[in-house]
What we know:
The chain is α+β, with helices and mostly antiparallel strands. It has 2 domains: 10-249, 3-Layer(bab) Sandwich (Hsp33 domain), CATH 3.55.30; 255-307, HSP33 redox switch-like (CBS domain Like), CATH 3.90.1280. Helices cover 31% and strands 31% of the residues. It has 9 helices and 15 strands. It has a 6-stranded mixed beta sheet with strand order 7-6-3-4-5-13, with helices on one face. It has a 5-stranded antiparallel beta sheet with strand order 8-9-2-1-12, with helices on both faces. The chain has a two-stranded antiparallel sheet with strand order 10-11. Strand 4 and strand 5 (102-106) form a beta hairpin. Helix 1 packs across helix 2 (54-71) and helix 8 (267-276) runs antiparallel to helix 9. It starts with 20 loop residues before the first strand and ends in a 14-residue tail after the last helix.
Amino acid sequence: MYPKINTAAPEKAGQVMMTDKIIRATGEVAELRFVLVDATAAANAVGGFHAAHGYARVLLGETLVSSLLLASGLKTNGTVQVKFQFSGDFSLATADATPMGLLRGMIPAADLKRTGDFEPLLAPQTMTVRKLNERGSPISESIVEMPSEYAGPNTSYYLLQSEQTKSAVGIKAQANADGTALDFCGGYLVEAFPKADEKTLAIMEQVVQSLPPISNYHRPGEGLDLGELLADLAGPFRYTVHRELPVQPFCPCSSTGVMKALSGLPREELEDVALRQETMELHCDYCRKRYQATPDQVRDLLEKMDASPEPEEPDGDAPGS
């Protein structure tokens, strides 16, 4: 589906990395759904692509977990895109995830450069969730005002406001002492199905309120103990685990995609590049991979643009116009 990327962050290359995973379960009797995520290694890999330190790495990791939790609710193959927008030192953090545990994420390079290693000042603005089908076509888009700067409460608020789903969401990432990596990154979602009764909801609320911090489930060198977290999260309710999946970074960028993107630039700009015999350098905002477009490639692109017929104007009398 997507090309895999080495999950070892640059600063961790050569070391044995823990295995990330997603656990999905439902109550045997209670109308509840449980999703648990350990994305420690994947979040470190993505943070490493961007050389994110300290709070930036935490924010990026927690955004990745939010996208994974929401993607677990897709009924078919597709992608969930999550974007947290702020005013202050960071403008946004965004992540994409699939139901199969593939993910990517980014914070704009300008934000990372501007903030460096100091604790940023942030004011939460909006959370945007876009759902795409397996062909990448939009299914839906929802925008809600964020009640918090933290990913967990925002994700739960989105589910209530946009999907009318009662839920509890816990998301936590913790950076190491020098901020160069995450000690752990993960979270949980417990979601009430429409038929859940008030007694089930009241018990589940008490269980979540008394749940220990996610940091209690951190096992140094092993990530998060999702089995123990699930047992505690389910409380008195019996549950069945339906699936366990690995979590892996992905990026679908390619040379072909870059050339397609170039075709959207003004023709005059492309002609100027070809005339000056310049090699264009581009990079992917997500995986930071660099691509080059040589003058010959730009000329070939111009020739293909000349050979392609101009799209016809839509008929004004067509349905839906």
